[in-house]
Design brief:
With 314 residues, the protein is of the alpha/beta class. It is built from ten helices and twelve strands. Helix 7 runs parallel beside helix 8.
Length: 314
C-alpha cells in the first residue's frame, strides 16, 4: 500500500538509472552479505554448541545425542532443563547435547508476488533474499551444510545442501535470476503449503530451517506445514516487513494493489490509524503465539534496517 505518486517516482528513478536496485536482488549484493558474518558472531546470533572437530555451530541445535547435565546458567534454553535432576538437587539443571557431525541448514525463501511490496528502500523480496544470503555465508563460516528452497509462486526450486562456497554462489546466482523473473509474475500457481511440503520431503535428517517470508494469512498458508517441520527440526520463522506496516501512513489517498487488483484507500482519522496498527500487530502476535506453541524461533526483519542487527536472539 503506497502513495501512487511515490511509487511512480521510484520506478522512474530506477528506469533512469537503468538498474533494478531495490526491486530485485542482485548477485553482487548477495555475495557482499558475507562481510556481515563477523557482526553476527559479535552479536552471538545464537548459542554455540559443540560440533565435530574444532568447529562450533553458530546455530542453536539440541542435536540427537545427550552429553551431560550441568547447573542452569542465565540465558540457557529453558526447554533443556532436566526436571528430575532439578527436583532432586533443589536447583535448576540443564541438559547438554552433542550435535550431529553433519549438520544441515536449509532456507525456505519466499520470492512470490506477495513479497513484491515496498515503500521506500527496497521490496520485501530483496530484503528476504539478502537475509537468506547472509544465513548461507554464516552457515559456511561455521562448516555447516547449506541448502535452499526457493518459492516464487509459480514453482519451487530445491538446492541440495553442501559445504562449499561454489554451491552457495550458484544458489545466489539463481536467486538473482528468479528475482528478476518474479517481478513479471502476477499470479500464484503453486501455494505455500505445497512448497513447504517439498522441503519436508527433501530433509532426511534433523536440520535447522529458516522460513523467510512476509507470512500473509499465516495460519492457513503456512502454519500447518511449519508445525510439521518443527517436530523433528529446529525452525526459525523470519518475518520480513516494510516500515509502512509499523505505522499508518499520513492522511491522504493511497493505491493498494495485489496482483492485478487495485483499490483506492483513504487514510483519515484516529479510527483508521488505530485499526491499521491493530491489524498488523495482530498478525505479528499470531505468528509469535504459533512459534511459542510449536517450539519455533521467531525473528522480525525490517526492509529499511541493517539485517545483521535484527538477527538477534529473542
Amino acid at each position: 500500500m503506497v502513495r501512487l505518486h511515490d511509487i511512480t517516482g521510484w520506478w522512474k528513478n530506477h528506469k533512469e538509472k537503468d538498474d533494478l536496485s531495490g526491486l530485485a536482488a542482485r548477485f553482487d549484493e548477495l555475495a557482499a552479505m558475507r562481510r556481515y558474518v563477523p557482526y553476527l558472531r559479535e552479536l552471538k546470533f545464537n548459542k554455540t554448541s559443540l560440533q565435530a572437530g574444532n568447529a562450533r555451530s553458530a546455530f542453536k541445535g539440541r542435536g540427537m545425542e545427550f552429553a551431560e547435565v550441568r547447573a542452569y546458567n542465565y540465558g540457557d534454553d529453558v526447554r533443556d532443563i532436566d526436571w528430575r535432576v532439578t527436583a532432586r538437587k533443589n536447583q535448576p539443571f540443564t541438559k547438554l547435547y552433542t550435535e550431529e557431525k553433519d549438520r544441515e541448514v536449509y532456507v525456505w525463501l519466499d520470492l512470490s508476488p506477495k513479497m513484491m511490496f515496498g515503500t521506500r528502500y527496497e521490496l520485501k523480496a530483496v530484503t528476504a533474499a539478502k537475509t537468506a544470503a547472509l544465513l548461507g555465508w554464516f552457515a559456511l563460516a561455521n562448516r555447516d551444510r547449506f541448502g535452499m528452497v526457493i518459492y516464487d509462486g509459480q514453482q519451487t526450486r530445491i538446492f541440495q545442501s553442501k559445504r562449499t562456497q561454489e554451491n552457495l554462489l550458484a544458489i545466489l546466482k539463481k536467486i538473482e535470476q528468479i528475482a528478476k523473473e518474479s517481478l513479471k509474475n502476477q499470479h500464484i500457481i503453486e501455494d505455500e503449503n505445497k512448497s513447504l511440503q517439498k522441503l519436508h520431503k527433501k530433509i532426511s535428517r534433523r536440520a535447522i530451517i529458516f522460513a523467510i517470508s512476509s507470512f500473509d494469512d499465516f495460519e492457513q498458508s503456512y502454519g500447518k506445514e511449519i508445525a510439521k517441520l518443527a517436530k523433528n527440526n529446529e525452525v526459525f520463522v523470519v518475518n520480513i516487513y516494510d516500515t509502512l506496516e509499523e505505522k499508518a501512513p499520513p492522511q491522504g489517498e493511497y493505491l493498494a494493489q495485489y496482483g492485478t487488483q487495485k483499490q483506492l484507500l483513504i487514510s483519515k482519522g484516529k479510527d483508521f490509524d488505530k485499526n491499521y496498527q491493530t491489524f498488523f500487530a495482530q498478525k505479528r502476535q499470531t505468528i509469535r503465539q504459533f512459534c511459542a506453541k510449536f517450539d519455533c524461533r521467531y525473528r522480525e526483519v525490517c526492509s529499511k534496517q541493517p539485517i545483521y542487527k535484527q538477527l538477534r536472539p529473542v
